[in-house]
Inverse folding.
């Protein structure tokens, strides 16, 4: 069923950010299996080239690589210029790149926090603004934005990350409604703990248990996007948890989250 669903992008071009690991790789593989041509971007060019070669051989799709660090405010313009110069008509934009940083706010490096906002929020808005006008002109296109189950509440000790993902969710939901008259679908994918490098990079490796496979998360997101949903939460437990919070006072939810995420003494 998933293969048939991704076939609607057969022969079209998709741009996937953060395509060197985790959910980004899984999304690229799912789309390639359905016949989608891909522009893959991330910081690590060697990984991108390896994935591009794999997908080209396995599925016969066209794959292009552009290394870029979205912490650089100029990166979205460079990515857009690359696709314009090569004549790639992007019908599916996947804003997947993002990262977090675990720890007490005052102890986290200032630049790390600012880069997080740049990658998780600014770059998402910037890339979407660059590619959306062409989609509107064609009266077709899709945008998938990676949010998180952290989008639904404040999460102490990853406060900035949760705030950026709340931004992504609300941005996607608002844009989804805005774009309906133009035949463009926008969806926020909200995974919980996922098997990827995210936990290592963010310093949250102790939360890796009960992680969902990245492949399952990718399929959930693509299926929801194809169905015209404005957001989707991956995993029944995550869905119940996110919506169950609405029945409890926000202060209590935040307090419970603080107890769960409180750093071990040896981490301080």
């Amino acid at each position: 069923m998933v293969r048939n669903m991704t076939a609607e992008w057969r022969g079209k071009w998709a741009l996937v950010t953060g395509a060197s690991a985790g959910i980004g790789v899984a999304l690229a593989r799912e789309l390639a299996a359905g016949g989608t041509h891909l522009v893959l971007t991330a910081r690590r060019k060697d990984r991108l080239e390896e994935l591009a070669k794999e997908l080209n051989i396995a599925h016969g799709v066209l794959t292009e690589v552009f290394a870029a660090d979205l912490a650089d405010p100029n990166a979205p313009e460079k990515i857009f210029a690359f696709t314009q110069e090569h004549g790639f008509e992007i019908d599916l934009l996947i804003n997947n790149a993002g990262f977090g940083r675990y720890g007490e706010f005052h102890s986290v490096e200032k630049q790390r926090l600012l880069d997080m906002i740049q990658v998780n929020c600014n770059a998402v808005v910037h890339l979407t603004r660059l590619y959306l006008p062409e989609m509107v002109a064609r009266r077709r296109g899709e945008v998938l934005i990676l949010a998180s189950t952290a989008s639904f509440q404040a999460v102490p000790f990853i406060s900035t990350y949760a705030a950026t993902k709340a931004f992504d969710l609300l941005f996607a939901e608002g844009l989804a409604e805005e774009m309906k008259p133009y035949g463009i679908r926008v969806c926020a994918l909200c995974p919980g703990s996922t098997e990827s490098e995210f936990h290592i990079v963010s310093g949250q490796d102790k939360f890796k248990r009960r992680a969902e496979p990245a492949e399952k998360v990718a399929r959930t997101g693509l299926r929801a996007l194809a169905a015209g949903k404005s957001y989707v939460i991956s995993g029944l437990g995550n869905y119940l948890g996110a919506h169950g919070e609405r029945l409890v006072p926000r202060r209590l939810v935040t307090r419970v989250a603080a107890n769960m995420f409180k750093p071990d003494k040896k981490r301080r």
Observations:
- Residues 84 and 90 are 9 Å apart (CA to CA).
